[in-house]
Amino acid sequence: MNQKLVLSRQNLTTYFQGEQFVRDTIAQINKDLGEFDIIEPSIEFYALHDKLRQLVIILAPVLDKLARHAGDQLAQFIYRVDVNETIFKQCMSEAQPYHHLAEQVIQRCAQKVYLRIKFSQK
Question: Which parts of the chain sit beneath pLDDT 50?
Answer without folding.
Answer: 1-3
